[in-house]
Each structure stands twice: as structure tokens, then as C-alpha cells.
Design goal:
Distance between the termini: 43 Å
Number of strands: 15
Domain GFO/IDH/MocA-like oxidoreductase: 134-269
EC number: 1.-.-.-
Low-confidence stretches: none
Order of helices and strands: EHEHEHEHEHEHEHHHEEEEEEEHHE
Protein name: Oxidoreductase YcjS
Number of helices: 11
Radius of gyration: 21 Å
Structural class: alpha/beta
Strand order of the largest sheet: 14-13-12-11-7-10-9-8-15
CATH superfamily of the largest domain: Dihydrodipicolinate Reductase, domain 2
InterPro entries: Gfo/Idh/MocA-like_OxRdtase_N (IPR000683), Gfo/Idh/MocA_oxidrdct_glycsds (IPR050463), GFO_IDH_MocA-like_dom (IPR055170), NAD(P)-bd_dom_sf (IPR036291)
Number of domains: 2
GO molecular function, one term: oxidoreductase activity
Strand content: 25-35%
Shape: globular
Largest sheet: 9 strands, mixed
CATH architecture of the largest domain: 2-Layer Sandwich
């Protein structure tokens, strides 16, 4: 701690890192002790913009500072694992941007390090902290949908491919839309279903549009020669209790953008995040749209930071348990393996 406040170090000072910095600065009993980033230019800008005294291009120097309580990892996906392991071994609590890691073996080691060092570890799956996410989970837990036996999860963008190398190169990202946005919609759908154990996974991946010169991206041009991840992926998950989930995600689809999870329940169905409910009453269709009485406009990324601090302060379990993130990554990992080998992966 520093001056009676929880000290946070942010590793990765790019776009999402700065968004996290803004969230931490809104919490009265938190101080941003320092930042680390491989780009000296980025460090200088962010240090000045947010009035941060310590900045380094060597994240190990930041992690080694004794006063720091929490390390917030906002680096490209490939660096989540080494930074998290180093932080946990230095007795820091770790919140890490999604995906927690790009393979399940790394997450297992992260969980082990967190246990051995008695520190909190959580993936920043912010969709669980949205107003619609929290409300829907409460509705499900209260039994209003009955048993959710099937979910269709869509993270489909029409012409929204992030052009930076950290998204289009496998060595940095670990994958394309499946790891970038698919992990979000899969995690929320999986959470709504109660995080059941996985039996088997089938997946397909395609790179049909990203290499074409006649395809335009609304977020700017990307280097087509360096693009070596999928631009479309889909998969099917069968759980051990017989329930199932379907995942579809894309950067450049020739269909409209679609960010939703369709939940098929025995009492009612729901389209999330619109929170449209469908059921039957006395032989009549009962369709409704739920909306909050008191609006909640606080960014979900900032709410997850507050939650993580509360868990550190009060020694509570985190909402996004690392064991659940492990299952999510096992699903995505299985889909990639299935796509490569063209056969179902059974766990």
C-alpha cells in the first residue's frame, strides 16, 4: 500500500490500459503507483496525461515494487501469462484482460501460482458486470427461465476488424475473433448456463475475407500479409449434463453485426442483452422487454475493477473465477484443435 491506499501497477498502457487507468482513478482508496509498456513513446504520453510518477519499459521493475498490491494486465494476449506468473510470484493480486491466457496449460499454472502465493486472480470479463448481464443472471438464478438447455452465442462484426498487429498476428493474439470477441460472448453464455463441465467441442475456422484487397474495414486498413489468424469461427459445445451451446464470431461477416446470446429455457427464453423474454401464459404468447427502473450507466470495465478491489480488501471470491476462465479457454482451444484436425475434441 501507499499512504494508506491500495497501490496499482498497470502493465500495458495502450487503449484498454488507459481505460482501466481511468477506472482506477475513480476509486478513492486506490493510487496508480506506476505503468509499464514496451513503447517509450506511449509511456511518456500516458504518464503525462494521467499524472503518473513511475513509468518503465521493463514490467519486472514495476512488479518488483514492494508497495504495489495489484497488477492490472492490459498487454497483448500472448504476454498475459508471463506477466501474471511474475506478478503472482511477487505476491501481487492480478486482474488480467481477457483472455486470461491463450492456452489452458498456462491458466492452470496461473491458478496454481495464485493458490501458492494466496493471491487473487481474475480475468476481466466485463460483460458479466454490465447492467444487462447482472440482471439476467439474477433472473436465471431466481428460476424465471427454468433450465437453460441450449444457448446460441453470437459475436459477429460486419466490417470491424481491428487493424493493429496485436489483433491480426497469431504470435501476439493467439487467435482472431474467437479470442478477441468470442471469448466475451462465450463467457457470458457459459456463465448464464451455470458453468457446466464440458464433454466435447467441434469447431471450424475460416480466413475468407481478410486477405482480399476489395474488402474494406471501417476501423482502418490492416496488413494483409501479416494477417495469419481466422476472420470467422464457429463451434458447438456439448456439456456433460447433455446441454449445449453454439458459438459464432467474425470480424468481417457479410451479414449484419450481431452481439447476442439466445437462451432457450424450459419456462421462458431470452435474447440478451436486449433482455427480450418469451413465454406462454394460458395458451397465449407472452412477450416482454425488461428494462431497469434505475438506469445504470457506469462502465462495466470500471465496475469490474471496483469488484476486484473489494475482493482483495475483504478476501472474497471473485465473480469471474479463474477455474471458469480455464473451462472457457479449454472450449476455444478445443475449437481450434477441432478445426485443424477436422474432428470432434472429447474431454
Amino acid at each position: 500500500m501507499k499512504n494508506g491506499k491500495y497501490a496499482v501497477g498497470v502493465v500495458g498502457a495502450g487503449g484498454i490500459g488507459q481505460y482501466h487507468i481511468e477506472g482506477w482513478k475513480k476509486i478513492p482508496d486506490v493510487v496508480i503507483y506506476g505503468i509499464a509498456d514496451s513503447s517509450k513513446e506511449t509511456l511518456d504520453k500516458v504518464k503525462l496525461k494521467y499524472d503518473i510518477s513511475f513509468a518503465t519499459t521493463d514490467y519486472k521493475k514495476l512488479i518488483g515494487i514492494e508497495e504495489i498490491d495489484i497488477i492490472d494486465i492490459c498487454t497483448p494476449n500472448a504476454f498475459h501469462y508471463p506477466v501474471a506468473i511474475a506478478a503472482l510470484k511477487n505476491k501481487k493480486h492480478v486482474i488480467c484482460e481477457k483472455p486470461l491466457a491463450t492456452n489452458s496449460a498456462h491458466i492452470e499454472k496461473m491458478i496454481q501460482a495464485a493458490r501458492e502465493n494466496k493471491r487473487k486472480l481474475m480475468a476481466a470479463q466485463n460483460q458479466r458486470f454490465t447492467a444487462a448481464g447482472q440482471a439476467t443472471k439474477k433472473i436465471i438464478d431466481n428460476g424465471l427461465l427454468g433450465e437453460i438447455y441450449f444457448a446460441q452465442c453470437y459475436a459477429v462484426r460486419r466490417r470491424e476488424l481491428p487493424p493493429r498487429e496485436t489483433f491480426i498476428r497469431h504470435a501476439l493474439s493467439g487467435g482472431g475473433p474467437m479470442f478477441d470477441i468470442g471469448v466475451h460472448i462465450l463467457d457470458i453464455g457459459y456463465w448464464f448456463m451455470g458453468c457446466p463441465k464440458v464433454h466435447s467441442v467441434k469447431g471450424v475456422t475460416f480466413n475468407k475475407l481478410a486477405g482480399r484487397e476489395d474488402i474494406t474495414g471501417s476501423w482502418g486498413e490492416w496488413d494483409r500479409n501479416k494477417f495469419d489468424v481466422e476472420d470467422f469461427a464457429a463451434g458447438f459445445v456439448l456439456f456433460k449434463d447433455g446441454r449445449a451451446l453454439q458459438l459464432t464470431c467474425s470480424f468481417l461477416s457479410n451479414l449484419p453485426s450481431n452481439w447476442s446470446s439466445n437462451l432457450y429455457g424450459t419456462k421462458a427464453g431470452m435474447i440478451w442483452p436486449e433482455m427480450k423474454m418469451f413465454s406462454e401464459i394460458s395458451g397465449l404468447h407472452n412477450d416482454s422487454i425488461l428494462s431497469p427502473i434505475v438506469p445504470d450507466d457506469e462502465p462495466s470495465h470500471h465496475k469490474e475493477l471496483k469488484h476486484f478491489l473489494d475482493c482483495v480488501r475483504d478476501n472474497r471470491d471473485v465473480l469471474v473465477k479463474p477455474e471458469e476462465s480455464l473451462e472457457v479457454i479449454k472450449i476455444l482451444e478445443g475449437m481450434y484443435i477441432s478445426a485443424e484436425k477436422k474432428k470432434e475434441v472429447i474431454y
